[in-house]
Design a protein that fits this description.
Helix content: under 10%
Number of helices: 5
Shape: flat
Radius of gyration: 61 Å
Strand content: over 45%
Distance between the termini: 125 Å
Oligomer: single chain
Length: about 1000
């Protein structure tokens, strides 16, 4: 075979899960079903016809042209087409025997149809190769079963068998269909569904055949055992696989179906291929239905509140009324059946007639009585229609509170050009009916016209026509309904055209607005004003209206838009006062044409008067408006001021002023500019030093104000807060640093408000305001007054003839609760105060930044050293020193001073001091043992010499904390402290050394 090709459908793409594949293509049932998967078997019944497709050559997801595939059936080649190299096209093979192998299946055409012929199994193989490409193979396996027929109800897909009886009401119809299938219905979900719902079948196609002996065998198709009770929608023995069964009257009916499978194919005889038809199947199935007598119900009226007609009852109508009937039967079987249409009839069609069985509209034609019947399912529902003569009338209403009777001999007045609705009254009127079409007629269409017909198709509505008055005169209007007439007389009078303007527009309530006639008169306006004129046609009637085609007015004026301009809008026009044209007043004539009439009025435009105002606030915040026309005012650069133009004389009663007609300009924009070119109120913005005039102009009239612009201080650098002490006046800065609006910077003198002594008499905070020339804001400085609450006591111990060392700074607490360290200036100490031992004296001092007094207490000891104790809360270490400077330094870096630990002698056994810098935060140790000292030095501790001496009678106890890494030892002359630490886990290590005293 030549190299194959394939053609891809534009949108057809299969969901791919592999290489080349064979699919059953049946979108109505199982969709694209891949039947070439490994282990896949397709179960079908004899006589089924399926359509195959080949997909996905080289994984491209596209369809291969079926007849170009190299096919094999049970290992034997099947040639569906040949490639014509001359034309480059595939051509179908001439008719041949597609059943020559006696297989269970056969190819029926070249586009993919496959038909099952007999029980058994079959395999088909598809091979595809493109020029230069690999060969791909797909295989499908089929298992063909003995066929049986199933009957299914179409609506609910319920199978009905020979042992089933389906209840149905006479007057209903249901659809049945048969399916060729097989026992078991397949083994997979696709097979099971496909066995019921394949899209094509060879059963009953053809529905008859002639064998070689000349005998004709035909399929019986569908049959009804009781044709009077049920038929197939009027057909006789249809052979279609789906039919409609009509239940006509009550009774029992058996529905059966017979189908044949006759396969036509070409057979290779000695003298060539001959067409032959073989009978391969003949099957039947049946089921029963039970028709019951229906209950018929007839209704009319709305769907929400219908009226039920009584059997043999009476319905009342008037001539020309139309009534819509509805009906139903019961019981209904909506799951599988539908209701048929009833037959409707009227025995006196000259009285009442029905249009059709489907629409069921009854029209009352003439007075009398007619019997109406609705027949369905062998039941006839009867009732009477009584038609009476109605009374017709005509009325009008429009804007009136209620309708007015216009029935002849009454006369209705209209003005030429007016239109009104004329309504036909119908009495008595049944609210459940509609009315027949009404025709309308005018006796003289030159005087008045009408709409010729009006249809009232819905219940409750009434027929209307529009009467349009044309020319003065009298005319008769006639309405005709079902041959009945009603009339009225219309008198048309001539129209009068006038021009009017508004009035009272300036009042808070518009309820008193009126329109003032100005035809042939004068209307005053000032340049920039606008007002409206209207045309008015009289007489005008509340029950009628003038259409826009009548009121639409042609407006003109004779000033060529120099004095006034017009903006027409139907029967209204906006008149814009343009200019007085350099005069005290300028006049123009306005002409209005409408409805064939022409009228005029005059407009006088006056020269405007302009003044300029501004609004200011006084010290109490009250606003005042000042007239600044022709005056001067001052602005800072970048400062704005609003100016308003006031125009007079105005006419607020009927006109509006367009302040956008006022034009603004600055003669020197570099000094001051205006925020916009037109409008009622503008902002004047200071730009640079200088003077300029601001002009407001309207219709050649100009009002002026002069503006002087100065450079202000843009900002002032806030001075730093000032701190003082109780009783001492604060020293406020004399100048402040300012930035001018043009970017310059300088130090300017500031004038502070006066400070009262009581403001700094005691601790607290207050602020002082100041002013700087050229600055519109207020400068403020904060003052903090400090007072001393307390300070840490200063207690110094020294020895005779040794000058005491007083601290340079102490920690103080101020009256506001803050704590600081302040420097101290001490009085000098004469020698005679510490020359002798065992004395105590006071030393006065002052805080360096104030005159606040502090006192230190000095104790002079003989032959002793005071040991100070400190604590580091971060490492837990207690530290001991007699050096005041070392003590004060440690306090300044965060250690807590704990007072005097003990008093040591100036001679005795040495107490060695060591330091461990290898632990975080460091640690000190003290011992009188030289061996302990040397052991610690070998372990890495630093030896810091003799700290003090041991001697006296007061023991200093040593404790050890086994849980700490720093601050592991504590030393105290307080026995209770020793006992307390031991009670919480410290180890008592006895007496470390001895002191002269505990304090």
């Amino acid at each position: 075979m030549l190299a194959t090709t394939f053609i891809a459908a534009p949108f057809a793409r299969a969901d791919q899960d592999g290489g080349l594949r064979i699919e059953i293509d049946d979108s109505k049932t199982v969709g694209n079903w891949n039947i070439s998967k490994a282990g896949q078997v397709v179960d079908l019944a004899v006589g089924q016809k399926v359509r195959l497709k080949v997909w996905n050559y080289q994984g491209n997801g596209q369809e291969v042209v079926f007849k170009t595939v190299d096919w094999q059936l049970n290992g034997q080649p099947v040639e569906l087409a040949k490639y014509d190299s001359a034309s480059g096209q595939w051509k179908d093979v001439s008719p041949r025997d597609t059943d020559e192998y006696g297989a269970a299946i056969a190819f029926t055409d070249t586009s993919g149809s496959l038909t099952t012929l007999r029980e058994g199994e079959a395999t088909i193989t598809a091979k595809v190769r493109m020029s230069g490409g690999p060969e791909e193979v797909a295989t499908a396996h089929f298992r063909v079963h003995k066929t049986k027929l199933k009957i299914i109800r179409s609506l609910d897909s319920q199978e009905v068998t020979s042992s089933d009886t389906t209840p149905i009401t006479a007057g209903e119809a249901m659809r049945l269909k048969y399916y060729p299938t097989f026992d078991g219905d397949g083994t997979t979900a696709q097979n099971k569904k496909y066995s019921y719902e394949f899209s094509t079948s060879m059963w009953n196609s053809p529905s008859s055949y002639r064998d070689e002996s000349g005998r004709t065998i035909k399929a019986d198709g569908w049959r009804s055992s009781n044709g009077a009770a049920a038929d197939f929608n009027g057909q006789l023995n249809p052979t279609a696989n789906e039919v409609t069964v009509r239940a006509l009257i009550a009774g029992q009916v058996t529905i059966s179906v017979n189908a044949i499978f006759a396969f036509s194919h070409a057979v290779n005889k000695a003298n060539g291929f001959k067409q032959q038809t073989d009978l391969l199947g003949n099957l039947s199935a049946k089921t029963a239905i039970s028709n019951v007598t229906p209950n018929v119900s007839v209704r009319y009226g709305s769907a929400t509140s219908p009226v039920t007609v009584q059997d043999n009852g009476t319905v009342n109508l008037g001539v020309g009324e139309i009534l819509q009937f509805n009906y139903s039967i019961s019981p209904l079987h909506t799951d599988y059946a539908t209701q048929l249409a009833a037959h409707w009839d009227s025995d006196k069609k000259t009285v009442a007639t029905l249009d059709s069985d489907t629409s069921r509209k009854l029209t009352a034609i003439d007075t009398g009585l007619s019997n109406v019947t609705a027949s369905i399912g062998g039941v006839t529902f009867k009732f009477s229609v009584n038609v009476s003569e109605p009374k017709l009338s005509l009325s009008y209403q429009g804007k009136l509170a209620s309708p007015v009777d216009a029935t002849s001999p009454r006369t209705v007045e209209l003005t030429a050009g007016e239109s009104m609705d004329l309504t036909m009254g119908y009495t008595p009127r049944h609210d459940y009916t509609s009315l027949n079409s009404v025709t309308w007629n005018s006796s003289d269409t030159n005087v008045a016209t009408v709409n010729r017909t009006s249809s009232v198709s819905s219940a409750g509505n009434t027929p209307k026509t529009m009467v349009t008055a044309k020319l003065p005169g009298t005319v008769t209007i006639t309405g005709t309904l079902a041959g009945r007439q009603v009339k009225t007389t219309i008198k048309v009078v001539d129209a009068t055209l006038s021009i009017v303007r508004d009035s009272h527009q300036d009042t808070p309530s518009r309820e008193d607005d009126v329109q003032v006639p100005v035809t042939g008169k004068n209307v005053d306006a000032t340049s920039g004003e606008s007002f409206k004129l209207y045309t008015k046609i009289t007489p005008a009637h509340d029950y009628a209206s003038f259409p826009s085609s009548v009121t639409r007015t042609t407006w003109t004026e004779d000033s060529l838009s120099k004095t006034i301009s017009l903006q027409p809008n139907g029967d209204a026009v906006t008149v814009n006062a343009v200019s007085s044209r350099g005069q005290a007043k300028s006049q123009a004539t306005v002409t209005a044409e409408a409805g064939g009439k022409t009228v005029t009025t005059k407009v006088s435009v006056a020269r405007p008067k302009i003044k300029l105002t501004t609004t200011e606030r006084d010290a109490q915040g009250k606003e005042t408006t000042k007239d600044i026309t022709g005056k001067d005012f001052q602005l800072n650069r970048n400062q704005s001021k609003n100016i308003k133009a006031v125009v007079g004389e105005l006419h607020p009663d009927y006109a509006k002023m367009d302040m956008n007609k006022v034009a603004w300009a600055s003669e020197t924009p570099s000094a001051a500019s205006v925020s916009r070119a037109t409008g009622e109120t503008i902002g004047v913005q200071g730009k640079g030093e200088g003077t300029t005039k601001i002009n407001a102009t309207l219709d050649g009239v100009t009002a002026t104000v002069s503006v002087k612009v100065v450079i202000p201080i843009k900002s002032v650098q806030a001075p730093d807060a000032v701190t003082t002490y109780a009783g001492k006046a604060p020293n406020l800065p004399q100048t402040v640093h300012v930035t001018w609006d043009d970017g310059r910077q300088s130090d300017e003198v500031i004038t502070w408000d006066k400070i009262q002594p009581d403001q700094y008499a005691k601790a607290g905070n207050f602020s002082v305001n100041g002013t700087v020339k050229g600055y519109s804001g207020t400068v403020r400085v904060s003052v903090r007054v400090l007072g001393l609450r307390s300070y840490d006591p200063v207690n110094i111990v020294t020895q005779a003839l040794i000058a005491p060392t007083l601290p340079n700074a102490i920690k103080v607490t101020w009256t506001d609760g803050t704590q600081t360290t302040e420097k101290v200036v001490w009085d000098s100490i004469p020698l005679n105060q510490y020359q002798k031992p065992n004395v105590t004296f006071k030393v006065n001092g002052k805080l360096a930044n104030s005159d606040i007094q502090v006192i230190a207490t000095v104790t002079v000891n003989a032959n002793s050293v005071t040991m100070y104790r400190l604590y580091n809360r971060y490492t837990g270490e207690h530290f001991y020193t007699s050096d005041v400077s070392e003590r004060d330094h440690l306090v300044s870096v965060g250690w807590s001073y704990e007072g005097v630990g003990w008093v040591a002698p100036v001679s005795g056994d040495p107490v060695y001091r060591l330091y461990n810098g290898h632990v975080r935060g460091g640690d000190h140790h003290y011992t009188t043992s030289a061996s302990e000292r040397d052991s610690l030095v070998r372990a890495g501790w630093s030896y810091e010499g003799v700290g003090w001496r041991s001697g006296g009678s007061v023991p200093v106890y040593r404790q050890y904390n086994p849980y700490a890494r720093t601050g592991t030892h504590n030393y105290t002359a307080d026995g209770s402290e020793n006992d307390r630490l031991v009670s919480v886990g410290w180890r008592a290590e006895g007496v470390g050394w001895y002191a002269v005293s505990a304090k």
